[in-house]
Amino acid sequence: MSEWSVTTLADVVKLQRGHDLPTRDRRPGGVPIVGSFGITGRHDTAKVKGPGVTIGRSGSSFGTAVYVEDDYWPLNTCLYVTDFRGNDPRWVYSLLHEIDFSGYNSGSAQPSLNRNFLANIPVCRPPASEQQRIAGVLGALDDLIETNRQQISRLREVAQAYFESVARDGDAVTFGDVAQPVRQGVSRDRLSAGTPYLGLEHFGTDGSGIAGVGDAGTVESNKSRFTAGDVLYGKLRPYFRKYDRPGFDGVCSTEIWVLRGVEPYASAIVAALVAQPEFTEFAMQGSGGTRMPRADWRHVASMPVVVPLREQLHEVEPRLDALWRAGVDLQKEVTELTRARDELLPLLISGMVRVREMA
Length: 359
Description:
4-stranded antiparallel beta sheet; 5-stranded mixed beta sheet; 9 helices; 2 domains
């Protein structure tokens, strides 16, 4: 550690609050718009040169670090680095990702980060050459994770295109004819440590899958049971998310529907319908409540849908299922890679594990 220096965050980076960009002012383009938890849209004009690093400034994404390779537009819901002060941007991202910002909340009802409160956070800074090696190791894992996520997205697109092609001239029914929510409650006192738990917070922000898994031993209320093959769908706006075939039995939040196919329809058909943008749009139209609108099952069940003819199901369902299973296998790899990265990150950032220069 003799080559490392102990300094403050203000000596490592300069932070600034992001910039407003109302929805009405956004124009079609390829520039990432970065909010409190990541890329939230695209615009035709960049505000900041890439690569860049942001930190979620408020709300549930308080303290979340995001790395952006290209020129981008940081929103005012985040802080962004205006000067890396000669440090490697990806190392800075890893450093900020590792810092626990919970003790620097300047808000009251809602968590909020104030850049002035962060200046004196102590950090350990390695030489630039080791920063680059650390960033290289962690970046390689991040790149593998992103590649898998892109493959998952492509598999979902293929599955949806196939489903739409075979359902085009199919049977017109309602969603309630195809799927029903299963209510298998589990009381808190029967939940044991080690039981997989999924809440809305564990669903990927793009709806492509599960971003993580919790432990039922830590939950504080009754939950719903699910099993392999069920389709999970969040009913609390704006967290309309889906996931097919988790690959294990577990429990989930009561804010998630556990959906199963109604004979003769299997989970692959249910997942294909739930994955359609029209499904979420319809669900949101019928959501009730003011502060936290929730989807209403009676409304969702009434949604008109078109499904493959019954005589085609024996051929369609296995093909859809294979595509969805391939995506789930990749998602498991993402989970394992993410776990490996998160376990390695604090060791590298603290200097407990050193990345030596290759001979």
